[in-house]
Amino acid sequence: MSTLTNKAHTPDSAAKPPRQPRTKPERPIWDEEPGAAAKAGKIVVLAVVVLAVLGPLYTIVLTSISSQATITQAGGLVLVPGEISFAAYQQILSGGVVTRAVLVSVGVTATGTALSMVVSILCAYGLSRPGSFAHTPILFTLLITMFFSAGIIPAYLLVSGLGLINTYWALILPSCISVFNIIILRGFFMGIDRGILDSARIDGASEWRTLTQIVLPMSKAVTAVIALFYGVGYWNAFFNAILYINDSSMNPLQVVLRSYVLQGVSVPGQVDVGTGAAAGPALQMAVIVLAMIPILIVYPFVQKHFTKGVMIGAVKG
Amino acid sequence: MSTGTERTAAPRQEVAAAQDSGHSAGSTTAAGGLGAPGQGGGSGGGGATAGSTALPLRPKANLKLRFNRDRSLVFMALPAVILLAIFAYLPMLGNVVAFQDYSPYVGIPASPWVGLDNFARVLADPDFWLAVKNTLVITAFQLVFFFPIPIALAMLLNSLVNPRLRAAIQAVVYLPHFFSWVLVVSVFQQIFGGAGLLNQSLRANGWQAVDIMTNPDTFLFLLTSQAIWKDAGWGIIVFLAALSAIDPAQYEAAAVDGAGRWKRMWHVTLPGLRSVIVLLLILRLGDSLTVGFEQMILQRDAVGAEASEVLDTFVYYTGVQNGDWSYAAAAGLIKGLVSLALILTANKVAHIFGESGVYSK
């Protein structure tokens, strides 16, 4: 079982009880079996919760891959699979606004995540040894920004003063590091057995080498989680784009999604409905699905690593 | 800085279970063996560090020696510090425009100083107070109707005996947290909008369509439902962690003493969650003035400014959209300072009640 365990790091924070194994294979003997009504209640509540999450996603994905006839027959969103057609995807991905927006989003997300990860891992490792030179001042420099943020106006004035308006850097640099993520990484690095690091040093490894060859290979799970956090942040960023990007040809996917689904701009190709092209609803759903796909692909691989330790260590920073 | 404070920090190096998917054969696991004494309830006695591998105390060295030793560590932290200096600290200084009559054409150095005029204008502006009122109403509403949901859900999940079922449900409920607000609002639009699934089927059955997405009167409920759909599932992660840290022996002892299911929940489970609940409440209170900024921008056209104006949108629309920079910066600065005061106060109150809060001293 992979765990990202992480104890509270403030010296005088309350004592944390030891972790219990998360899986209880059997009901303990002192715990009475719940009554039939209680069991049924639980099942109903959980089923409703799961359905509330998955239901909308199901119908949206299904509608996006349904043919015009099926959609018309269903009178809107499709609940029962009918004729399957990928016309909507062919249409929106055949060049034009959506294709370009996807490329922008992919580029910004890839570049941004790589940059964020390098900077954050270095910083977290640099701060992982209390007592090192300037450790406390640097840590405070980071933490203060969690309590007071400057606000929208000065941030905008800065980005425009740096000449970053209408550049992709405006979508990356202002949100490049999250102190929260650095604290999670740092907490994990601090939990690594000192003996291992010391023996590396005795063998003559520099800090850089210790980080890349010992610490990082031991921290795959936590780096995967943090990379997901950063990646999702960049992929989902919407406000930065409407704030800093005025050139509509540079819009990322989220902005395009908003204009098609929420602002009623017609999706290119929608006017061709009469000629047998994909229907309007299918096109809108296809754009929604495009915005979801990267998350749906990456999420299953990373979610098993979200163990509670990550979050607890983080909030306790 | 004095080495004294740093020295006291050394024993915090508790070695926790730090293995990664079983690849790292060398890493030692100390999961169960840590800090057995001194746990129990939320009382938070000491003793967790007992038995942990403490960092060997570093020799007291002069600054230069220490710098030479830790040079690479400092350089590693540097890029992040530089980015923060530019994109977090520089804008803090940029707040001086709140005391100016700033014009983008002449820049900050040449803009005239006006003292506190902008603040006086902001505080006399009914639109500002409307934004304050909306913000606080939304925060209060969500505190009552959103905040308890993850707690309840976590307790429900925790009561499931089958670990695989539990993991599967967790995987599903965490998912919407990773969708953007644009996506969440779009999904709601497709289900509840005028041409959405719900209204289609209502009409098909001869009923009246309901106006959910554009009705300012019910906007509060809509906002909260969206927030619940997106984040309530993710919220349980912290509570599950706290629940798993409760010693089963406490339940056992309570059961032996004749406490039933509900009594155990009241006397064991809830006290075990108390410090996490307090912590999250503090964070939420500190964030009282920040509510659903992107949600508001996305739905402003649909429900109108009257219902959807909050402090952040007020700053954005007056400043960036209308070009009244100094005025908006003043409003933003008021918000930032009040938020800071709120979080410090909430933390203070938590200390008074014996909780550790966000930071401890």
Using a beta-carbon cutoff below 8 angstroms, give the protein chain pair with the largest interface and the number of residues from each chain: A-B, 139 and 160 residues
CATH architectural category of the largest domain in chain B: Orthogonal Bundle
The H-level CATH homologous superfamily of the domain at 95-255 and 288-316 in chain A, spelled out, is MetI-like
Order of helices and strands of chain B: HHHHHHHHHHHHHHHH
Main location (chain A): membrane
Transmembrane segments (chain A): 43-62, 101-127, 139-162, 168-189, 221-245, 282-302
Pfam families (chain A): BPD_transp_1
Protein name (chain A): Aldouronate transport system permease protein
Task: Write a concise keyword list for the protein shown above.
heterodimer, A: 317 residues, mainly alpha, MetI-like fold, 15 helices, 63% helix, globular, disordered C terminus, B: 361 residues, disordered N terminus
Structure, briefly:
Chain A: Keywords: Cell membrane, Membrane, Transmembrane, Transmembrane helix, Transport. The complex is a heterodimer of chains A (317) and B (361). Chain A is an all-alpha fold.
Structural account:
The complex is a heterodimer of chains A (317) and B (361). Chain A is mainly α and 317 residues long. Chain A has a domain at 95-255 and 288-316: MetI-like fold. Chain A has 15 helices and no strands. Chain A has helices spanning 36-64, 68-74, 87-92, 97-126, 135-147, 152-161, 169-172, 179-191, 194-202, 207-218, 220-236, 239-244, 253-262, 280-303, 308-316. In chain A, helix 4 packs across helix 8, helix 8 (179-191) runs antiparallel to helix 11 (220-236) and helix 8 crosses helix 15. The longest helix of chain A is centred in the middle third of the chain and has 30 residues, at 97-126. Chain A is globular. Chain B is mainly α and 361 residues long. Chain B folds into 2 domains: 1-12 and 52-99, no CATH class; 117-352, MetI-like (MetI-like fold, Orthogonal Bundle), CATH 1.10.3720.10. Chain B contains 16 helices and no strands. In chain B, helix 12 (261-286) packs antiparallel against helix 16 (325-352). Chain B is globular, with a radius of gyration of 26 Å. In chain B, 39% of the residues are buried. Mean pLDDT of chain B is 80; it is low at 1-57. At the A-B interface, helix 1, helix 4, helix 5, helix 6 and helix 8 of A face helix 1, helix 2, helix 6, helix 7 and helix 8 of B. Chain A: It is found in: Cell membrane. Chain A: Belongs to the binding-protein-dependent transport system permease family. Chain A: The chain crosses the membrane at residues 43-62, 101-127, 139-162, 168-189, 221-245, 282-302. Chain A: It comes from Pseudarthrobacter oxydans. Chain A: Residues 1-31 are annotated as: Disordered. Chain B: Residues 132-346 form the ABC transmembrane type-1 domain.
